[in-house]
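Practice problem: F-box domain-containing protein
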Amino acid sequence: MSIERLPTEILIQVLDDASLEIGDLAVISRVSRLWHSAVVPVLYRRFTFRYYPSLKPEEQKRLESFSKYGHHVRQLSLHIKDWIDEDDPRFRDPDLVPDITTYLHMLDPFTEVTHIEHYDIDIRGMTWPNFWAILHYIVSKKQDLISLTVRRNPHWNVNPPRNEDIDIDTLLRAPLLVNLTSFNFQVNGKHSRAEGIESFPSLVGNFVLVLGDSCRNVSKLQLYLKMVDKTGSQTLANLLETDFRLLPLDNVKELTYVVSPDITPPSRLFRSEFEETKILTTTGWVCGHWLPSAWEKVPLGESFNYFKNVETLRITDIFKTDEGNNLERNIEFVAKYLPNLGSLILEDDERQFSISRKLDGSLVWEEVAFVV
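Answer key — structure tokens:
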């Protein structure tokens, strides 16, 4: 049998090899019409498009091919880079103005897309209203979404956001994404100043307004908001007086909560006690300071339900509690507040521990192989 007549069932198994590059698939698709028909759905199943202010010919060609084959796309990754602000003199040069509207219009017709990654990288001119407008535009055309990842790397020391930039009353609420089960929201302000912290309540408020209702059925939530204050503690302390809009959550099984400033515990941002959560990834601060502090505030006779059913705890930074750095005491410390804890993972130290309890309630733990 010639290779051209190889059954497509076998070919499709070959195509499922994750190590295959787009170029490999393109070569395979040219073998025969039969192979082309089999390869195209796989070739466009995961589609990554990197948008720059001026499209290169090859990127324009890829965008045109998406218009033809986009109904095969299930996972769509959008990378936007180097947006030019209206105040920038280069904005007057028509060759440099990003044609973002045309770009989005070409991406929006295909409702078959179920997984989207929207990634703004090295943005120096995009204001928060523009960011939320683009996000709203994308999700409003993809109501069958199952998974949504949103990442921003803002350079706030270049163009810091101001609260007056964001008008919550005029923001559009995104259509309800009833199928959304996985949401990953990351803002990484590596060079942030105090303005980043001051805009934190507005960031949270807009996030809840635009996507809050769609998160009710989310079972996997990742919230990574790194906003560093280098100007002193007063700006951070002011957040203690802030009433945040609460994100409504009902069914989170797996939660990643890595938020700075650390004075913002989960109870300040979510309308949930996470009784369904089995896997928790968070900072040492949440377990070492917020959990025991919250426990102490529980009225006599009432139970403390936050994370009570967590089975796996992953600490992303230094594992430190009120007991100091003593490993044995710290394991006993977190196990006290997480009665169903069975596995503890310390990412910084690359160590992992198995935890169990005897019939008398005493704790038994041992180190096991670290799994990345």
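Discussion: Residues 312 and 343 are 5 Å apart (CA to CA). Students who identified this feature from the tokens alone can consider the problem solved.
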